[in-house]
Design a protein that fits this description.
The complex is a heterodimer of chains A (about 325) and B (about 250). Chain A is of the alpha/beta class. Helix content of chain A is about 25%, strand content about 30%. The longest helix of chain A is centred in the C-terminal third of the chain and has 18 residues, at about 310-325. Chain A is elongated and about 60 Å long. In chain B, helix 3 (about 95-105) crosses helix 4 (about 125-135). The chains are: A alpha/beta (about 325), B alpha/beta (about 250). Chains A and B meet through helix 2, helix 3, strand 7, strand 9 and strand 10 of A and helix 3, helix 4, strand 7, strand 8 and strand 9 of B. The complex binds flavin-adenine dinucleotide and adenosine monophosphate.
Chain lengths: ~325, ~250
């Protein structure tokens, strides 16, 4: 019977949403592999983690808790050693392609001597082997790959796999997993909060991004106000304004910034250069506001308004506030 | 300070992708190739560290076809001391690439081995980390800030909603993200000097690997969007569409 290991992520004792997405991808593979394949969720922490029982509904059959006093923050060597210690008995290991998952997945794959398909947006089974689709060349092409190794190691792109909530599935039982002895060569000392923007673009379901069309850094206030009007939206930026020092690099969307896939992406005063599109073209709905009707951003936008952002954005902020107050 | 930098030759990021006749790779006809942008940050970091230390050697390694020589010359022109090309076809399996690089780097006696965080062609995001595992060296990936003091590396890496501060001891493997520095442009003097720098060619054979590419396709076109209108008067229509048609607010 095939077993699938879903490597989950928690922060300060709370599971992150991407963990549910990893379980959804793992469950899809379990169902396609058939033969009663099961899914184990692996969680690292210093002690118990909230809400692990409810992971059953999201696709886990069992939750393994690897507790260690040094697992409060990401611990590359410890997490990799622990995952690799049990990884060999699984048919598939699924990671999130997050900042830590992108670091951890190749470590584990190398320890197990198998290939790793990173940042995948679709998973499946072909001729009994795990297959995946991954955006390559800045999202300008989709590569289909088949993993021959055992285990097959994958990392999934956040915000891509729909979270499952199967009411009929049982709660997941939690079992303690022994952490093997490991040499800690790398230490995460702390996680500093960024100076700007509270919500990360990689996590947000609505993003409002600004570009050079805003003319000067102070005008980003318009973008912040529109983001606030949506409720919980993140503020993004084009590289032009990040390089000019108006916004932090953490906010940059695009090929040398973050790849995002929110349900709504609003591009304000952004021309839509190919490198910017690389980071946001898989957004579910794209809105563009630009004074140039020929700007390339309109080619990917579901809805566009041609005109002066300084007139349009304040009006949009008002109308969004109004409609949100009504409903 | 002895520093190695691993460099990949990749299509320029503005390349229009045309699928090749095998249906699994791109048509390279007319494609302009450049140094992977993330590797340029690694080159700059290596040069700055050597300059600060006042002594040492920087070496650029690449695994690829002979065409990679041209890209490696750019690294030499920027100031890297010598180049080693591992002549081989490459592999979609990052572990096979990492094995070839690790075998070569193992005996190099490097204090630091630098990689880009990812190659902009395959988006694999793995070769640096895997090489570190194979060499059993500490590794900090995707760093946007670097300080080295008395044999200790302190680096910062961007994570969701924050910045991690991470430390390890030398020798180490680091992979670089944007933000760490601004790569210098090769000077005319540098370009001339590069022609005389040592350049080694070593054939390598890669293993078959565990990852097979079965297809490459263009992404589905986004369905044609529409211009809702012009100027602020179009805002009400937009909001109605977002609410009733797209259902995102
Ligand atoms: C290797 C490489 C990597 C890169 N990576 C990235 C990346 O990750 N992310 C990224 O974004 N870019 C990236 N770039 C840069 C990219 O090519 C563009 O230069 C950049 O995206 C442009 O930013 P922008 O749209 O803000 O500015 P511009 O291209 O200058 O566009 C400004 C837009 O604002 C509009 N505008 C001006 N005034 C108004 C107004 N009053 N009302 C409405 N609209 C107005 C204009 O019509 C124009 O379309 C990269 C480039 C390279 C070479
Ligand atoms: N063929 C190669 N030759 C030299 N270095 C490489 C090669 N492929 C990848 N790398 C290095 O590994 C990094 C990550 O690449 P990747 O894992 O393919 O995204 C790159 O930024 C390079 O520094």
């Amino acid at each position: 019977m095939a077993q699938i290991l879903a490597v989950l992520e928690q922060r300060q004792g709370t599971l992150r949403k991407v963990s549910l997405e990893v379980l959804a991808a793992a469950r899809t593979l379990a169902d396609q592999l058939g033969g009663g394949a099961t899914v184990d969720g692996l969680v690292f922490g210093t002690g118990a983690v909230e809400g692990t029982a409810a992971l059953g509904k999201a696709g886990a059959d069992r939750v393994l808790l690897a507790a260690h006093p040094d697992f409060g923050l990401y611990n590359p060597d410890g997490f990799a050693a622990t995952t690799a210690s049990i990884g060999g008995s699984y048919a598939v290991i699924v990671f999130p392609a997050t900042a830590s998952g992108r670091d951890l997945a190749p470590r584990v794959a190398a320890k197990l001597g198998v290939a790793c398909a990173t940042d995948v947006t679709e998973v499946g089974v072909e001729g009994g082997k795990v297959s995946a689709v991954r955006p390559v060349y800045a999202g300008k092409a989709l590569q289909r790959v088949v993993l021959g190794g055992a285990p097959a190691v994958l990392s999934i792109r956040p915000n891509t796999f729909a979270v499952a909530q199967a009411a009929d599935r049982a709660d997941a039982a939690t079992a303690a997993l022994d952490v093997p002895s490991f040499t800690q060569r790398v230490t995460v000392k702390e996680v500093k909060a960024p100076a700007q923007s509270t919500l990360d673009v990689a996590e947000a379901s609505i993003i409002v991004s600004g570009g050079r069309g805003l003319k000067e850094p102070g005008n980003f206030k318009l973008i912040e106000e529109l983001a606030a009007a949506f409720g919980t939206a993140a503020v993004g930026a084009s590289r032009a304004v990040v390089d000019a020092g108006w916004r932090e690099h953490a906010a940059q969307v695009g090929q040398t910034g973050k790849t995002v896939a929110p349900s709504l992406y609003v591009a304000v005063g952004i021309s839509g250069a190919i490198q910017h599109l690389a980071g946001m073209r898989t957004s579910k709905v794209i809105v563009a506001i630009n004074k140039d009707k020929d700007a390339p951003i309109f080619k990917v936008a579901d809805y566009g308004i041609v005109g002066d952002l300084f007139e349009i954005v304040p009006r949009l902020t008002e109308e969004i506030k109004k409609i949100r107050a009504e409903h | 300070m002895r520093i190695a930098v691993c460099l990949k030759r990749v299509p320029d990021t503005t390349t229009k992708i045309v699928i090749g006749s095998d249906g699994k790779s791109i048509d390279e006809n007319g494609v302009k190739f450049v140094a992977n942008p993330y590797d340029e940050y690694a080159i700059e970091a290596a040069l700055a560290l050597k300059e600060k230390a006042g002594a040492g050697e920087t070496v650029v390694y690449s695994l690829g076809t002979d065409a990679a020589q041209e890209t490696m010359r750019t690294a030499l022109a920027m100031g890297i001391d010598r180049a080693v090309l591992l002549q081989g076809g490459g592999s979609p399996d990052g572990l096979e690439v990492a094995k070839a690089l690790a075998a070569e780097l193992k005996s190099g006696g490097f204090d630091l081995i630098l990689f880009g965080k990812m190659a902009v062609d395959d988006y694999n995001h793995q070769v640096g980390v895997m090489t570190a595992e194979l060499l059993e060296l500490p590794c900090i990936s995707a760093i946007s800030h670097l300080a080295i003091e008395g044999g200790t590396v302190t680096a910062e890496r961007e994570v969701e909603g924050g910045v991690e501060v991470v430390t390890c001891a030398l020798p180490a493997v680091l992979t670089t993200d944007k933000g760490i520095n601004t790569p210098r442009l090769p000077s005319l003097k540098g370009i001339m000097a590069a022609k005389k720098k040592p350049f080694e060619l070593k054939p390598v054979t890669l293993g078959a690997g565990g990852l097979t590419v079965t297809g490459l396709t263009l992404p589905p076109e986004r369905k044609a969007g529409r211009i809702v209108g012009e100027g602020p008067d179009a805002v009400s229509t937009l909001v109605q569409l977002l609410r009733n048609e797209a259902k995102v607010i």
